[in-house]
Amino acid sequence: MNIVRNLSVVAALALSLNASITLDGENLTSKDIAYISNGAKVDISKKAMQKVKKAHEILLSAAKDGQKIYGLTVGVGLNKDRSFVDAKGNLDAEVIEASTKFNIGLIHAHCGGVGEDMPLKTARAVLATRLNNMLFAGAGVQEEVISLYKEFLNQDIIPVMPSVGSMGEADITILGHVGLAMLGEGEVYYKGEKMAAAQALKKAGLKPLSPFGKDSLSILSSNAYSAALASLALEDLKHADKMSKLVFALSLEALNGNVAPFSSEAASLRLFPQFEATAKQIREILKDSYLWDKDDARALQDPLSYRDASYFFAAMSSSIQSLESLMKIQLNSSDDNPGIFIGEQPAGAKFQESKLFTKGGAVVPTSNFEPLLWVIEFEKASIVLAHNSKASSLRTIKLSDDNFTHLSRFLGTDKTVHAFGAMQKPFVALAGENEFLANPASLDYVPVAGNIEDVATNAPFVMQKFSKQIENFYSILGMELIHAAQAIDLRMQQNPNLKLSAQTKKLYDEYRKVVKFMDTDRPLTGDFRNSAKFLKEYK
User: Fold this and answer.
1) Residue 137 CB: number of other CB atoms within 10 A?
2) Could you point out which of 167, 281, 282, 515 has its C-alpha 20 to 30 Å from the C-alpha of 291?
3) Maximum Cα interatomic distance, the chain, rounded to a whole number of Å
4) Listing from the earlier edge strand, what are the strands of the sheet with 339-342?
5) pLDDT for 347 beyond 90
6) CA–CA distance, 59 with 37 (Å, rounded to integer)
């Protein structure tokens, strides 16, 4: 299988240029995740590796102390009450062998998903996300684990992972397949070709992992799949947000709409921060447009889908800001349970505060696998995206209505019969689908694992349906764009000197290289697809 089929052209370029991002557990962004997903290689800071080594030492020290450690000396889930490895104050060969056997069994027992193989782009994002989480040093893994994550990314060894099977309280049944590949079991894509993991490791000159301590639990017990999906979706949303404002501006010019609602005077009367900033953005996009000139035919008040646009965009900007803040924390923290705390002193003198401490730090039971804070924010963003999808579809309907544009019905010419008359159905259908996809999914779960894991978030599904919304949104915007460009052409036939703003003129000119004016009725399926693709790639 050719790598270019699995990674984008950008990925192949990144690989060829050996683009590299240094991971330190502290500064990773969703944009970095997107670069790595598209082929960028990774380096690891020395400081981060020192912390990883220290955290592992703390873990082993606690085991020697005789502490009960979830996933190391005792089982996981309901089996937390069962002892499996007894360090007996000494990590001798017998203990190491028992721990390794337990770790391998843990990976085997947690590999079970359904659905299609995860796209390679997503899988790379998963590896990068979990690697950076481990560099925060809350996992307590061996250095060999860190090395394998790095080598997997840099040598293009991508574990075959199912795409469905996580309830969103750590993606254990999916991420277990990463551990499986590190053991030299299961399958991977090596440089785009699917093969046995053992074969790929041999080709790459890598030794299979001999897991020990908390290695296996740390590999599989995280939200790296959900967080990877979230990071990629966030970057897509940011670009879609930018495109939606540009398309809107051209659409307003196509309508011969009123810019008054976006004036600084209007914004000053209701100082919601995002609303004021968005109104300013619209003014800047439309700078020097003919819309600022006098036109007695221009309506005093446009339909609300146009007039209220700043509020729809402001809601989107607000969601993006919140998501960026939350994902920055998620990507640069530990969602391990238990987590390794590096520090000499407990916060207090009470037994429950001090019992977990050993030399150099503590092994702390946590609930940090819980992703609810950012999952809920994505569900909010999903509602915002549905509102923007519907507003775009309603604006497009107005562009086909001669009562609003004072152009030809359905933006036709003297050579068309139907023009865009039948073409309202596709974007209305997609807007309806986005409305349905905006329904919350995080509440739909049942208790599992012997009734101890009794809450969940369905984080991967929340992100999957959100990504589908973004995909639909691009198509909706693309159909608004084809209508807007058609209307602009008709206006230019009436007034060849019609002046668009610099930004909308650039958008229009570039778009017309891809999708031409509809002079006669023609099939539009290809144009709709090309319009969405154009917006995704527009810079």
Assistant:
1) 27
2) 515
3) 90
4) 339-342, 361-364, 357-358
5) no
6) 31
Cβ–Cβ < 8 Å for 45, 131: no
Contact 117, 162 (CB under 8 A): yes
CA-based R_g, the chain, Å? 27
User: Which structure tokens are listed for 87?
Assistant: 């360090």
Sign of the torsion formed by the C-alpha atoms of 59, 63, 65 and 69: positive
| Domains detected in the chain | 46-222+340-364 (1.10.275.10), 231-329+371-537 (1.20.200.10)
> For residue 452, what pLDDT band results from cuts at 50, 70 and 90?
confident
| Look-up of token digits 């860190």 | 146
Q: Could you tell me which residues come within 8 angstroms of residue 510 by beta carbon, excluding any fewer than 6 positions away?
A: 534, 538
At 149, list the tokens.
């994550």
Range list of H helices, 110-223:
120-135, 143-154, 172-182, 197-204, 215-220
Return the H-helix or E-strand segment holding 189: strand 187-190
The residue with tokens 């999952």 is 375
- Alpha-carbon distance 126 to 143, whole Å? 19
Within a 10 A sphere around the Cβ of 344, how many other Cβ atoms?
A: 9
State the Cα–Cα distance between residues 161 and 181, nearest whole angstrom: 10
Q: How far is residue 476 from each of residues 80, 88, 201, 357, measured CA to CA in Å?
A: 50, 64, 44, 56
What does pTM read for this prediction? 0.93
* Lowest mean pLDDT segment, chosen from 77-81, 346-350, 393-397: 77-81
363: β partners: 340
Q: Which of 112-121, 239-248, 444-453, 480-489 has the lowest mean pLDDT?
A: 444-453
Per the structure block, which two tokens stand in for 71? 């996933």
- pLDDT for residue 340 is more than 60: yes
Residue 494 to residue 514: CA distance in whole angstroms: 24
Tell me the C-alpha distance between 23 and 528, whole Å.
40
List, for residues 38-67, the tens digit of each pLDDT value: 999 999 999 999 999 999 999 988 888 877
Query: Can you read off the two tokens belonging to residue 186?
Result: 């299961």
213-233 pLDDT, tens digit each: 899 999 999 999 999 999 999
- Yes or no: say if 332 and 136 are a contact pair by the CB < 8 Å rule: yes
Tokens of 243: 């495109």
User: Can you tell me the distance from the alpha carbon of 375 to that of 445, in angstroms, rounded to the nearest whole number?
Assistant: 14
Please state, in angstroms and as integers, the Cα–Cα distance from residue 77 to each residue in 268, 368, 450, 526, following that order.
55, 15, 8, 51
Question: Which residues fall within 8 angstroms of residue 402, CB to CB, at 6 or more apart?
Answer: 408, 409
Q: State how far the Cα of 511 lies from the Cα of 482, in Å rounded to an integer.
A: 9
Helices (H), 371-500: 372-399, 402-405, 424-437, 459-494
Distance CA 58, CA 344 (A): 11
Gap between the Cα atoms of 189 and 173, Å rounded:
19
Residue by residue, DSSP assigns 4-40 as GGTS-HHHHHHHHHT-EEEE-SS---HHHHHHHHTT-
